[in-house]
Amino acid sequence: MIKPKKSTAILFYLVLTAFTAFSQQNLLDQKITIRFEQLEVSEALEKIEARANCIIAYRPSALPKDLLVTESYQNISIRTILQELWEGEELGFLAIGNKITIQVNPKKKSGKTNGNLSGQIKDEKQNPLPGVNIKLAGTTIGDMTDKDGKFSIRDLKAGNYTLIISSVGFQQTERTVEVKNRKNTNFSTSLILSIEELEEVVVLGKTEEQEKMEEPIKVEAINTQALQSKSISLPQVINQTAGVKVRQAGGVGGATLININGLQGNAIRFFRDGIPLEYLGRAFDLSIIPVDQLDNVDIYKGVLPADLGADALGGALNFTSRENFENNLDLAYSIGSFNTHQVNMNGYYSVPNTRLFVSLASYYVYSDNNYRVSVPIADPVTANLVDTEVERFHDGIESYFVEGKIGFKEFALGDWLEFSYARFNWEKERQNGIQLDPNSALGEVMDFETSDIFATRYKLSKGKLNIDAFGSYSNRNTLFIDNPEFRYNWLGEQLPLINNPGGETNTSTKYYRELNFDTWTGRLLLNYQLGKNHEFVFNHNVISENRIGSDTLEVIVGIDINPLTLPTSYIRNISSLGITSSFFKERVKNVLTIKRFRVNTASKSLAQGLSFDANLERLRKTQYGFGNSTKFSLTENRFIRISYEFATRIPESIEFLGDGFFVFGNSSLKPETTHNINWGYYSNLGNNNKHWIDINLFYRFVRGNIFLTLVGLSEGVYRNMDDARVIGSELSLKGAITPTLKYNFSVTYQDIRRANPVDNNLGGARQPNIPYFFSNAGLRFDFPKDLLKGNWDTYLNYGFVEKFLLSPVPKELEPALFGPVDKINSASIIDTQHTLDMGMTYKQVNLPLWISLEVNNVLDIPVFDGFRVQLPGRNFRLKLKYRINGKSNENANK
Predict the structure, then answer these.
(1) Angle between helices 41-52 and 78-85 (to 10 degrees)
(2) pTM score, two decimals?
(3) Is 625 exposed, middle or buried (0-12, 13-18, 19+ CB in 10 A)?
C-alpha cells in the first residue's frame, strides 16, 4: 500500500475544508422569500426545506417550546431565519451539500433577545400603499413598503418606539408601538390623503398597474379595486380606455361586443386569472359582471403574452379575481332605474392556527329593462310608418352566481391548493333578435342557462421554477322556448295566431330547444428564471366541449333527424413559449412568443337545409404563430415600444355549432390569421409627473375575417368574409389639474377596410357596423375634507361616437368624417352619439360604509349600438357598500 505524501494529505485537507466552507456559505447564505403563519418551529423548518430544497437536521428536544411563528421574510438568508427561529440560543451550523446540521448550546445564549416589527400600510380605501417610508424616531433605522404595502424592521431591542410614517401625497403620521423580546410585533395603519403635499407630487414608486403598462407588450391595466365603492358598470369603465369600445345590444344582460384596435367579437379572447372563460359560460359576461368581483382588468393590444396562451387576433381581456389574504366580508346592494337590483357578497376566512382557508364570491342581478325606445309603427289611419316611443315590455333578466372555495396555502407540498364549486343561473326575456323588427316584437320568447362548475388550482414556487396548474369541469344547460299563445306588436298588444301557427322567431315552427354542454378546461403554466436577465414561460391550454341537444317542438321539413340531436365535439389545444430578456441595465426589454394552435371539431350545421345527412363534418387544423415586442427606455419615465405578431384564431364553438337560438352553425369555417404591428410612445409631460401621454399606432391585416351576418331579420350565421386591413391610432392623456381635480382623455381612429372582396363594388370599402372614430373624457373631483365631513368624490365621464355604417356601401358613397350624409340612404347609417354620465361617492370617516349615486345618459339623448339597437335613456343607480374586517390573529395598532 502506497502512503500519500504529507504534502498531498495537506492539499487534500485544504481542498476538503474549502469545499465544506463553500458548501456551507452557498447554502446557509442562500436568500429566500417565505412566510410563516401560526406555525410551530418544526413546521417552519419543514417549509424551509421545501422552499430551499434542503435537509435540516436537529435534535427535536432542542426546539423552542410553545412558540408559534408568524413572520414574513423577503429575500433573507437561511442562516438569519434559522437563528431567529431559535430566539437567542447560540447555534452552530454545518452545511455540506444540501444538508444543514444545527447544533444548539442550551446553556449559552447568543445574546439575541431582541424582537421584530412588521406590518402593512394602506390608504383610506384600504388599498395597500407601496413606497411608504417607516422610520424609528431619533434613529436611522427604517424600511420602505413593498408593492403590497408591507414592511419589516428586524432585531429591535424591547421597548416603546415612535414610528414616523410618510409618503408623498399623504399626511405624515406618528404612531407608538411596543416591541417585546423574542416577539414578532405586527403593526398596521392607514394614511390620509394630503392636499398640501400633492401640490409637489413626485412619483417615488409605481403601482402594479403602472408597471404592467410599461411592459414591452401593450396592455391597459385598470385597477377596479378603487371603483368597487362606485355604482359604475364594467362596460363604462372599459369605455374610458383608448382604442377600446364596448358595445351592448340593450340594457342589463344585453349581448356585448368589444372592439380593440379595429378587431372585435370573437377575435377578442377573455380570461379569468389567466384561464380561458369558456368554462364559466355567461357567468363573467360584461353585461352583468359587477366590478365588485374584480381587482383588475388587463386589456391587451397586439401581441399577447405566453402566459395567457390565447389564439386571439390582437386583443384580450384578463379579469383578475379579488385576492383576499385578510379575513373580511363585503356586502353591496344597488338599485336603479327600470327596476334594476344588484347584490354582491364576497368574503374570505383563514382558519386560525391552520393553513386552511375558505372564500365566497357571489352576485345577484335583476332588471325589468323596461326602458323606452323609438320604433317605426304603422299609423292606423294612413298606414305610414311613424317613429313612436314605446316601452320594452319583455326584456327582463334575473341571474345569480355563487362560487365557494376551500384550500390550503403555504403547506409542505406547495404554496397554494384550492378546490371550488360554482353555480350560475340565467333567465332572460327576449324582445328582439339581432336587430329590431318594426313589424313585430317578441313577447313570450325565453332564454335560460344553468351551470355547475368544479375546478381546482395548484401553485408551487421551487427556487427559480414556478408552477401553476388548473383544471375544471362544467356542465352547462341552455333552454330556448318559443311556443307562443299570441303575437305581439311594439305597443305590447296581443294579436291572434291566425294562419301563422309557428313561433315568434320563426313563423313556420315553434321551439323548445335544450342544449347540454360538457366542458373540460386545463391549463399548465411553467415559469423559470434563468439568471437575472432572462425568464422562460411555457403555457398549454386545452378546451374540450361536447354538445348534444333536443327539441320536442321543432319540425324540419324533409329531414327525419334533427341535427341538433347529433353529438358534436370541439377540442382546442394551444401551446405557448415565451422568453423575456433585458439588456443594457434594463434599458431594453424584449418579449419573444411562439405559439402552436390545434383544433378538432365534429359537427353538423343547422343551416344546411334539405341537403342534410347524418354524417358529421370534421375539421382538423394545426397552425402556428409568433410575435416579438421590444421596449426602449429613453429616460426613467419615457419609452417607445414596437411589436409584431403573426396571429391565428381558431373559431369558437358557437361559430362552428351556433347557439341554438338566433345563430346558425357553420361547420365550414376556417381559422382567421392576421399580421399585427404596434408602435407606441409613452412619456410624462414636464418634470413634475402630473401629466402623462400615451400614443399608439397600429396596423392589422386579417385573412378569412369571420363576421356575424344577418339571415333574415332575426337570425345570423358566422362566415369567413373578405380580408380586412386596419390602420389606426389612439392617444390618451391623464393627470392632475389641481391636487383635487384629475382628468383622463382618449381619442381613437381606426380605418377598417375590405381587402380582396368577393363583391368588386366593395373593394376598399369600410367594414360596416363598427365605429371608426370615438373619444372619451373624464373628470374626478375630491372634495377637501375640511369642507365636508367624510370623504367625497365626484366623477364625470363623456363619450363621443362618430356616425358609422350599418350596412356596406361602396367606398365612393361613404360620408366623410364629420361630413354630411348625402350620397346614401340615412337608414344605412348609425348616427353620431354623445353620452354623459356622472356620479358621486361618500365614505364615512370612521365607518366602512360607502354610498354612491350615478346618473347615466344625463342628457337623455337617444343612443344606438350595433345593428341600430337602442340603448337606455337617462337612468339612475344608487349603491350601498359595507365591509366587515375580521379580527387578525396578530396584534394590530390602528
Answers:
(1) 170
(2) 0.76
(3) buried
